[in-house]
Amino acid sequence: IMLVVFCLFFTANSQCPVQIIPRRAVVRYGDNVSAHCKTSVLHEGMGWEASEGRVPMTKNQNLITWRVPELTEWDIKPFCYINYKIGDKDQCQVELPVTVYKTPDSVFISTVNHRGPMMEGQQYELQCDVHNVAPVQNLTVKWYKGQTLLHQTNFTDTIETPENKTVTLLIRPDRADDGAQYWCEAELDLGADGPQPHPTNSSKPLSIAVYCYKKFSQKDSNITLECYSTGNPEPAMWWSFKNRNISTGRRHINIERATSTNAGVYTCSATNKFGRSDKTFIVEIKGLGCECENNI
């Protein structure tokens, strides 16, 4: 009796005389899928069992195909079975692992609890929303600044149906980040049997404006704002305040005996034939505070 039990276990799990091609199926939701099951032994019948694409048992074929023209079941588990003779009739089965995937409907980047320009040296939170993607356990969300990879997040969820995922990134921009573009990317790594290259969906870039630290001054005090630029050819420079030019060709401006009318946003601009760059200063007439230099 012990020998019989051992043989049944061995034949059913280790030596089932069928071969499934491919060994694993990776299919996009709604696409067609197929797999072959073949044997080289005499048998009393073989077939496919599945919630979609079932193939009834046949005794006169050694190769049968499971086929679904439009797969819409997320957790399908098809298996091929065979009834063959080892002494008495015996049956074994081999399952075809199927991964059904769906790329995101959208990938969106935003700032959390903040709108408008950012202040140099302050911490801000960016958020990436990935909508309706599966399976999440194969998902990686990557953060970029320009073409530089900053961080990536993987997931351990085993849910097979589509989910929404949100990841965040903390940044502390400096003046060199003014105009930088942040973006996030959702990548599905479905293994060697999956599509190559890996399917990716990217957000639109989020361009940030970075203001330097505010410059505080006492009423009636003198203020100097300095702005430096480099380039070849040497950039032309000018300053603007309240949407009008107030100085041309100078790297600094002086505000004498400042009053509340001098408070606001000052912009230093530099341009040459290759482009233009702007830097912004905020002046508040409140009291003594930090100095602010700026480089373009």
UniProtKB/TrEMBL annotation:
One GO cellular component term noted in the UniProt record for this chain: membrane
Membrane topology: Single-pass type I membrane protein
InterPro entries, per the entry: ICAM_VCAM, ICAM_VCAM_N, Ig-like_dom, Ig-like_dom_sf, Ig-like_fold, Ig_I-set, Ig_sub, Ig_sub2
Subcellular location, principal: membrane
GO biological process entries: cell-cell adhesion
Domain Ig-like: 104-207, 221-286
Name of the protein described by the UniProt record: Ig-like domain-containing protein
